[in-house]
Amino acid sequence: MTPDGRHTPDVRVPRLVGLMAVDACESARARGLFVHAPDRPDFPLVVVDHVVRQYPQPGAEVPRDSVVHVWFDFGEGEGGGGVREPRGPRPPTGGLGRELEEPRTAPAVLLSSP
Prior knowledge:
Structural class: alpha+beta
Order of helices and strands: EHEEEEH
Helix content: 10-25%
Distance between the termini: 109 Å
Number of strands: 5
Largest sheet: 3 strands, mixed
């Protein structure tokens, strides 16, 4: 209920994770929700950063005019890119790996004329 006694129907929270800031705001606004970013004091100026977390979760039913909190950075110890290079186990030897090795140069042959 609103302060003036009108009933506000519940709305489903859209999935905002993965969206750019401007698209997340538009998607929430279209459902009658507001967006707040506790980790970004400059949130009104953010346009292309991507949402990595949100609360309440997508699909939750909340009253119209509720606030959905979004984050643009993972907290310490959460997610992130991690190591992007293979660490092991190494592929087995042989097969294509052996065929793709650099060709070895033949030892130079000295020719002499009589």
